[in-house]
Design a protein that fits this description.
The chain is an alpha+beta fold and 92 residues long. It has one domain. The protein is built from 1 helix and 5 strands, in the order βββββα. The chain has one helix at 72-91, and strands at residues 6-11, 17-28, 33-43, 49-57, 65-67. The chain has a 5-stranded antiparallel beta sheet, with no helix packed on it. A hairpin with a 5-residue loop joins strand 3 and strand 4. The longest helix is centred in the last third of the chain and has 20 residues, at 72-91. The model has no long low-confidence stretch (mean pLDDT 90).
Length: 92
């Protein structure tokens, strides 16, 4: 496994910058919506790493911005992508 981590800077509402590790980016071809899965490498009480999902909003000539996941259908599709990826990891 590669040790190359993709780091992304997120500008927070208060103007501060958070450095996060990008785990995955993907696009649904039918909707043309892009998503990013990232982590701040935080763990919960059970020791699981917390991950975050956001939509990517691209405007020509500007840096991409993070958006929300707006519908239950979007969440269901994203969860299916993550489940499939975790199955692939388990099989390797």
């Amino acid at each position: 496994m590669s040790e190359d981590k993709k780091i992304m800077s997120i500008v927070l509402e208060d103007g501060s910058i958070d450095e996060v590790e990008v785990l995955l980016t993907f696009e649904f071809t039918d909707t043309k919506k892009e998503y990013v899965v990232y982590t701040k490498n935080e763990t919960d009480e059970a020791g699981n790493v917390t991950i975050y999902v956001a939509s990517l909003i691209r405007v020509e000539g500007q840096d991409p911005k993070l958006g929300s996941v707006e519908t239950d259908e979007e969440w269901a599709r994203i969860k299916n992508v993550l489940k499939e990826l975790s199955k692939d990891d388990d099989e390797q």
